[in-house]
Write a sequence for this structure.
């Protein structure tokens, strides 16, 4: 018997005007798994992330999380159910400090409303203190505690990517989607990212990773899904994928030609 | 220290109000200060909406008017107690804000500006045209002053204490909101709505919430206006006043609560100072609006600080 | 006195059919004539709104700015033409000179207010153009005072009778010249180098710059063009409404409604929006109450924004994620 899947995609598809960006894609992410999603530029990886997180609604198919359909739900509800993400093009709250960025991640796990906040009720102040403490912990987890009070916009790109991960983790996800977290990082930073991804798994958070850095992908992923022109091309453990003829032809081959 | 900061601020504020109130020279200055106070209340709300949540409104004069007219009509025509009139105004403004806000806040940028502008003008026309209810263009007279626990706030000076007590309260609430989980989420929406959504912020609901709050602030100010001046006219609630409110926010500085106080004060006093120029008043006012916005688009405080820093750097460069 | 027999809708027989009005599907003839009357006055105003709205849309497409001073160009057009005419210039000459003068003012406005504010946010640009409008209106009040001035109609005062409704010759002038201006403008935008460059610069400023179009010049030109259109609208409407220093504000806002209703991206859409607005207003003020005339425009504006934010014709998406 297979363990119950955390996330299941069944024949998911979407098109933009004439362009079918994602076509009949089905795969699963198991609990505790690190799964990678690879494919050439424009394959539809980010679009798939947008579908899973509710930024887009699929034209066809089903997306199940904890065996419940989530397609068509607004993004904030999907976040509440335990899916969080980072962005390929960093989307930080630039006018806010580093720790405040992470504190926004605690939003759905806390409840002080307008009235409690406006009146500074004691319980809401305790909650606020807890939010700050937890956020500082997540910052320490990714190694950014020293920059807590800087403005997010002033961080170098590598730190911004880490901050996005900390912010996403602060929502207490069961599944974390990382969209090209290594893009723009140098070698030591990439090495640290690898350790971070393993550390995230230690916290019983599954990871779905989109990454162009093949050596990183092959090292961290338990399983790899290959997407090309919106279609699922292959799925399997890294070794198999590396040898898969269709993958080499469609994806790696094209990269090697450059 | 930080724990008691808010209380120290509140103490200092009310001390200042008490001193000013007892030293005030004549009715003219009291009336002007009352008007500044009312404008501060509206601008604080509008700044929550514009500066923090990043949503523009070119129609907030309408909520000011809804509060004022509800209070005026209920207390004068139907002899309701002013406090109940004020509450009724809040209820009406809140409802209208929800009905308008739900479709309008789906729009972004200029389209939201256009929708709120249209809403504001429709309401202003209604004030003019429903003369059986509002007294029409010539205005509404004989509105009774506030009565609270046997106290009547009849004179401008008692009105001053009443208005500025409320200003202090609203200031306290606003500072707290900005500092809270809700304020943080609003700023997040402003910086990146996409990321805020992905982090679980219900952006649509929060935008509506703060739109309603800002409408309630404006309505409250409207009711206070009705009861402290005892006379209101539709010309105070038109398109130009909405623009003036937005200008107060921008001149004071977006997302700056203390700046709002400055913006409201400066733009309320300015026309008074310009009155000596008679017909030139409007011309100079228009000119000042343009010049300030062109050269200090981030508001007076931050703009002047920027200029000063620039000067410093240039001198060091030499 | 018997009502004049309408020219082509009814046969003589029906017309002479008796003391009561002949009925066409239950509507009395007077009612039809009345509706026609509203239609005429609606189309007249609508054409003016369309001209002003096109000005908004030209600037919006070139700069993403809503120019709240647009209505003041209309007022200036009217008052300058009236002043020139009262100095003894012929009407066509006064028209031409007024439009040229206001075009120049539009250029100066762009230069002083808009170009100096390159760093400004959308909100401060709104305030800048509103401030500019206030300034222009204030200056006009200094020059002309608060009196209303008349301009003689382009030809004839006698209303023409048409199917029981009357129409002023000036209305015909307005509609004819509006059609001429719109067709001319479309031809200019599609068939001249300058027009094509303007369209390119508004579709994609970066690409336009790459192919050597000077975008800042196009922005300047868009202000000139919309000031000219606004001024023309002002001269056209002056014989009907009189010229006053504060006539521009409401006209400007109506033109702006027309532009949004039709869809800011398309000139044809703006014309449609303007005419629709004019007719809806005329019907509302005739059938409901003239006091709410102005509210109708903004009500339609809200309905369009809420249910079809890209405008009736436009394709520009209003929401992006
Ligand atoms: N909102 C949208 N509207 C129209 N087309 C879109 C939209 N989003 C994505 N696309 C198109 O869908 C296709 C897939 O894009 P997507 O961003 O998902 O690719 P990707 O696999 O993430 O590529 P990359 O490796 O470059 O990030 C592309 O052709 C893209 O142009
Ligand atoms: Mg991508």
């Amino acid at each position: 018997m297979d363990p119950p899947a955390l996330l299941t995609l069944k024949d998911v598809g979407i098109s933009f005007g004439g362009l079918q960006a994602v076509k009949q894609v089905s795969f699963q992410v198991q609990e505790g798994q690190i799964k990678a999603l690879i494919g050439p530029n424009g394959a539809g990886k980010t679009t798939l992330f947008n579908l899973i997180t509710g930024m887009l609604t699929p034209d066809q198919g089903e997306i199940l999380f904890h065996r419940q359909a989530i397609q068509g739900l607004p993004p904030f509800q999907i976040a509440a159910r335990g899916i969080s993400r980072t962005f390929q093009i960093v989307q930080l709250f630039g006018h806010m400090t580093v720790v405040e960025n992470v504190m926004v991640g605690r939003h759905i796990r806390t409840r002080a409303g307008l009235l409690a906040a406006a009146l500074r009720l004691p319980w809401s102040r305790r909650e606020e203190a807890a939010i700050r403490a937890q956020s500082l912990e997540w910052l320490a987890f990714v190694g950014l505690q020293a920059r807590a009070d800087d403005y997010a916009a002033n961080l170098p790109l590598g730190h911004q990517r880490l901050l996005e991960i900390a912010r996403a983790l602060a929502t207490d996800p069961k599944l974390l989607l990382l969209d090209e977290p290594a893009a723009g990082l140098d070698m030591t930073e990439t090495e640290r990212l690898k350790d971070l991804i393993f550390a995230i798994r230690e916290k019983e958070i599954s990871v779905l990773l989109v990454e162009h850095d093949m050596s990183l992908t092959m090292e961290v992923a338990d399983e790899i899904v290959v997407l090309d022109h919106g279609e699922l091309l292959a799925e399997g453990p890294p070794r198999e994928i590396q040898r898969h003829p269709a993958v080499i032809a469609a994806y790696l081959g094209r990269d090697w030609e450059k | 220290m930080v724990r008691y900061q808010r209380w120290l601020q509140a103490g200092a504020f009310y001390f200042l109000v008490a001193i000013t109130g007892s030293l005030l020279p004549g009715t003219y200055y009291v009336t002007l200060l009352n008007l500044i106070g009312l404008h501060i209340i509206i601008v604080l709300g509008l700044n929550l909406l514009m500066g923090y949540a990043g949503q523009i409104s070119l129609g907030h004069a309408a909520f000011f008017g809804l509060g004022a007219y509800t209070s005026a009509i209920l207390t004068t025509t139907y002899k309701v107690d002013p406090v109940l009139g004020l509450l009724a105004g809040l209820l009406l403004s809140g409802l209208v804000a929800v009905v308008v806000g739900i479709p309008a806040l789906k729009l972004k940028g200029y389209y939201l500006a256009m929708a709120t502008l249209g809403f504001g003008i429709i309401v202003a026309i209604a004030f003019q045209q429903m003369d059986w209810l509002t007294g029409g263009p010539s205005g509404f007279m004989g509105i009774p002053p506030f009565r609270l626990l046997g106290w009547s706030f009849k004179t401008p000076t008692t009105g001053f204490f009443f208005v500025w007590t409320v200003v202090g309260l609203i200031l306290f609430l606003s500072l707290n909101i900005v500092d809270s989980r809700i304020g943080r989420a609003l700023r997040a929406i402003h910086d990146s709505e996409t990321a805020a959504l992905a982090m679980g912020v219900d952006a649509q609901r929060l935008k509506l919430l703060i739109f309603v709050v800002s409408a309630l602030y404006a309505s409250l100010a409207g009711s206070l206006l009705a009861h402290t001046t005892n006379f209101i006219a539709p010309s105070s609630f038109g398109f130009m006043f909405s623009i003036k409110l937005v200008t107060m926010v921008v001149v004071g500085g977006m997302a700056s609560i203390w700046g709002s106080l400055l913006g409201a004060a400066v733009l309320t006093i300015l026309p008074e100072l310009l009155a000596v120029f008679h017909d030139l008043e409007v011309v100079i006012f228009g000119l000042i609006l343009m010049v300030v916005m062109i050269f200090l688009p981030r508001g007076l405080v931050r703009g002047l600080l920027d200029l000063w820093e620039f000067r410093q750097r240039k001198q060091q460069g030499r | 006195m018997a009502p004049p027999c309408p020219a082509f809708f009814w046969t003589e027989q029906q017309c002479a059919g008796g003391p009561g009005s002949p009925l066409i599907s239950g509507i009395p003839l007077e009612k039809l004539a009345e509706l026609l009357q509203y239609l005429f006055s609606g189309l007249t105003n609508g054409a003016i709104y369309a001209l002003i709205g096109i000005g908004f849309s030209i600037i919006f497409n070139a700069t993403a700015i809503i120019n709240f001073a647009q209505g003041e160009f209309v007022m200036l057009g009217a008052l300058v033409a009236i002043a020139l005419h009262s100095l003894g210039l012929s009407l066509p000459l006064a028209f031409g000179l007024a439009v040229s003068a206001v075009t120049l003012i539009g250029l100066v406005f762009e230069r002083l207010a808009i170009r100096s504010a390159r760093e400004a946010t959308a909100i401060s640009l709104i305030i800048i153009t509103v401030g500019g409008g206030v300034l222009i209106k204030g200056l006009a009040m200094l020059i002309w005072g608060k009196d209303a001035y008349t301009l003689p109609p382009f030809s004839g005062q006698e209303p023409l009778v048409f199917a029981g409704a009357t129409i002023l010759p000036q209305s015909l002038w307005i509609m004819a010249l509006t059609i001429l201006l719109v067709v001319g403008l479309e031809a200019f935008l599609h068939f001249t180098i300058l027009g094509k460059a303007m369209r390119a610069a508004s579709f994609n400023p970066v690409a336009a710059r790459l192919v050597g179009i000077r975008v800042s010049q196009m922005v300047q030109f868009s202000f000139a063009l919309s000031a000219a259109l606004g001024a023309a609208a002002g001269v056209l409407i002056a014989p009907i409404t009189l010229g006053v220093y504060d006539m521009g504000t409401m006209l400007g806002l109506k033109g702006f409604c027309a532009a949004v209703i039709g869809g800011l991206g398309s000139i044809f859409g703006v014309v449609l929006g303007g005419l629709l607005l004019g007719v809806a207003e005329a019907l509302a003020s005739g059938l409901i109450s003239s006091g709410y005339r102005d509210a109708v425009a903004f009500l339609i504006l809200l309905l369009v924004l809420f249910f079809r934010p890209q405008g009736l014709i436009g394709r520009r998406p209003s929401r992006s994620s």
About this structure: Residues 122-142 of chain A form the longest helix (21 residues). Residues 8 and 28 of chain A are 4 Å apart (CA to CA). Chain A has ten helices and ten strands.
